[in-house]
Amino acid sequence: MRKFFLLTYILLLLTVINSVAVNAQTINITTNRTQLVLQVKENGRLYQAYLGARLSETTELSQIYMPGTTLTSSQITGFEAYPVMGTEDYYEPAFEILHADGNPVSVLKFQSFEQNGNETIFRLKDELYPIHVTLHYVAYPEENIIKQWADIYHEEKGEVCISRYASGMLYFESHNYYLMQFGNDWGKEMQMKETKLEYGKKMLDTRLGTRSALITPPFFMVGLDEPVNENHGEVLMGTIAWTGNYRMTFEVDHNNCLRVIAGINPDASRYRLKKNEVFRTPEFIFTLSQNGTAQGSHDMQQWAMRQQLYKGQDDRQTLLNNWENTYFRFDEEKLQQLFNEAKNLGVDLFLLDDGWFGNKYPRNNDRQGLGDWEVMEKKLPHGLTFTIRQCEEQGLGFGIWIEPEMVNPKSELYEQHRDWVIELPDRETYYSRHQLVLDLSNPKVQEFVFGVVDGLMTQCPTIRYIKWDCNSPMTNVYSHYEGRNQGNLFIDYTRGLYNILDRIQLKYPDLTMMLCSSGGGRSDFGALKYFTEFWCSDNTDPIERLFIQWGFSYFMPAKAMCSHVTAWNKKADIKFRTDVCFPYKLGFDLDLKKLTDDERTYCRQAVCEWKRLKHILFSPTIHRLISPYQGNHCVLQRTDKDRSHALVFAYDLHPRFRESLQPVKLQGLNPDALYEVKEIMLMPGEKSRLSFQGKTFSGDYLMHIGLPLLTSNDMSSRIIEIEKLF
Ligand code: DGJ
């Protein structure tokens, strides 16, 4: 009996010591420019104590007055790292659970933490229920990025149901908050709109499943204290790496504090979690810039190229695509002509688009054949290998279009496997582009979709490039997969997709893939782990494209943004159309025969110049000098990392009569260096009319006096190369 008391006493003592140690715990997560401080408070729970510019080593962190709390209050409320629904917190929680016994609340207590290199892991647990939440934070010091996610699992007897499961949560204490959101619709991707956040909640979310980014792409910026600005002010820029339904909540509370919560959208996704199954949330990625969006977007792009984008540090290739030229109408002879044209253009690849497959239901339009991935004998009687050989004989790589997640009801696949299709039983079906989504939560369907790529690569191992399309959102949401819990469908679909993409990447590491989804319907960092680039929009009108690309440029590396010269907007000349595409991943998708010799020469020149200048074009340093949202002009600058070589792109959209045109001041150059300034990419036989052509200026001059780059000519453009002399 004595022994028992002694043991109990020692255990109690240890608990006290541990809780004293716990009380003193202050954990820092730092990049070179940002600091996130978390503290374990007296109640044994984890709170955010600070998020802002990096502090000095000697700052008195233990003295931090925890925001959102009243000094007089003995109870701690607000700023909990992972607040749970049903506890004392008044606002939007990060986590909600229904335990196996029906109890709807958990209180997550800090257990331990560990720091391995730049990763910090906090282990939280409910003292009454065996439910575990592990919060992960990874800091990228040089890129000034922090990403966070949560792992959730339990050891309860039955299944638990989780209905909120944020990836991460951040708090801010500023006077004002300005949310810049992106998006709109097909053909109007990444349009920017800023609103002041007031008391209450604003949500950016999507529930389209597959084409999740179609209307609301998963990006945001929040200007703290002042509206989002390019060159000054504190701005939070964030995104969620999830190719599916997501939700980002911005809530201003009664103390004028802001909480930002990012995660999977829990709508229609009450997830049933089995014992010991780990539910891993997607990553919430953010940067906090003290110098506006120029710094923030540099850091995002740098991070994306180093850490996230597939082959982010590698080169990119130019291509000719046949879609907007032939649509479904092509045959072997036509393709042979196109291979010749691609060769003359000087591009690296030819990309064969939709319409090459289906026999019982030939894919001659978008109403049939999707899902039947065997080559159409009528169009390509000698088979795909023959066509590929013809392409390669011209010194070109071959790329091919697929849309493996989808099916036309008029297809052999649908006839044979109706249970593989996401479709409501006994109700009228809604179709988007005459097609339906396959149920990727079903392992058999995953096998089939992997097999589409595997089959192509086995049959034609030299395929270098795949355009992976996805033209329908997920509607008629119902899985026929045996035993399927319908609440898990949206999430398990995305996991199924990642599972397939993981297998493809493992087996075909050299294959490069473009992520398409009728344009920007999928443009998230979750998918870009598997794709080298994405199709920003089906809208290739150069004026519209300037706006779309402008929006994406805040987050996406230029090398990931496919930009193809097409025939959209006949009023714009070929120079303007090409110059709009030039700063990104250049490609062509038009009938080159319809161009004049000079126009073709211009395109050829663009390909050569693009290859010469890729080291600047792919630099993460972008300065958005004049926004198209200001009105009639758009100017941007890309600069290499040594500030010795830059390109400036100046576009006049629809200038006003006798508009006053101010010189454009460049940014980010070395003020003491001398630079040669010259206009490049002139039409054949044309001379630059710019007064400064070929002259030398100091960086100081270029940044403080500037260059007269604008004109009052409708849809005209200039590309200026700026090279340091010594
Ligand atoms: C939609 C894509 O955005 C287009 O580029 C093209 O590939 C078509 N699908 C083909 O159906």
Q: Describe it for me?
A:
The protein has 726 residues and is α+β, with helices and mostly antiparallel strands. Among the domains are: 2-308, Beta-galactosidase, Chain A, domain 5 (Distorted Sandwich), CATH 2.70.98; 622-724, Golgi alpha-mannosidase II (Immunoglobulin-like). The protein has twelve helices and 35 strands. Strands 5, 6, 7, 8, 10, 11, 13, 14, 18 and 19 form a ten-stranded antiparallel β-sheet that branches. A hairpin with a 4-residue loop joins strand 6 (119-126) and strand 7. Helix 7 (443-459) runs parallel beside helix 8 and helix 10 (574-581) packs parallel to helix 11 (597-617). The longest helix is centred in the first third of the chain and has 22 residues, at 2-23. The relative contact order is 0.08. The model is unreliable at 7-23 (pLDDT under 50). Bound molecules: (2R,3S,4R,5S)-2-(hydroxymethyl)piperidine-3,4,5-triol. (2R,3S,4R,5S)-2-(hydroxymethyl)piperidine-3,4,5-triol is lined by residues 323, 353-354, 366, 401, 469, 471, 516, 518-519, 535, 538.
